[in-house]
Amino acid sequence: MRMCNRYSLTAELSDLTEDFRIDSVHVPYFMRYNIAPTQQVPIIQQIGEERCLNQHRWGLMPYWGKNSINANVDTLGDRQYLRTMLTKKRCVVPCSGFYIWKQEGKSKSAWRAVHRKKATFAMPGIYDVWLDSEKNEFPMCTVITRGSAFDTDHTLPVILDEEAMDLWLDPKETRTEMLQSLLQSLPDADFRTYPVTPFVENIAWETPDCIAEVHSSLSLVKI
User: Fold this and answer.
1) Contacts of 81 (CB under 8 A, 6+ apart)
2) Which residues form the signal peptide (predicted)?
3) Which tens digit of pLDDT belongs to each residue from 11-27?
4) First to last CA, the chain
5) CB neighbours (10 Å) of residue 71?
6) Residue 154: which of 7, 49, 23 has the closest Cα?
7) What does each C-alpha distance from 196 to 114, 130, 150, 157, 211 come to in angstroms?
8) Does the global pTM surpass 0.85?
9) Domain 7-98+119-191, CATH 2.60.40.10 — does that match?
């Protein structure tokens, strides 16, 4: 199963703070068109009485392995470090659309999935802080996924509605069963998918062209 390994966040800061009821912005914010693993990504977390926009490294490190950019719902309870993050260290990763690749014979094509009703939606995440030998802090997060997306081998990000997001960010909520009950995948029909440039596979390609719809023949990559 391939990871959900590319997404975009194209909301204006004013819309993001209003839609997600963010009280405080702790980091510089700018639109992102091709967010990739190991990069710093915007996250929302509850700090004291405030809902804050912060940033974390996308991908757990160092000993969890290089592919720890997603955590599957079905394995959250299998590992102690994931259970600890689930009960104590939760965040929301705002997303305007995520990318998938569809296999077509000896070619694959790049597609973007967007929610039909929400310009930006909430993906649940869990996080930790890694300390290096000099006690420098490196916050890191992973996105929770389940199942597969649109008849591909890509995992599908879980999406929280407003009520579920409030519970997810509430540090007083520590019941594993309650938290896992929030992690329901949406039907494919809630999304629209459209072909995009194959250049989104290149992490250096970070322009508005990444989210532009193209003719399906232009989304193909020979492999």
Assistant:
1) 64, 128
2) none
3) 999 999 999 999 999 99
4) 18
5) 25
6) 7
7) 12, 36, 16, 19, 6
8) yes
9) no
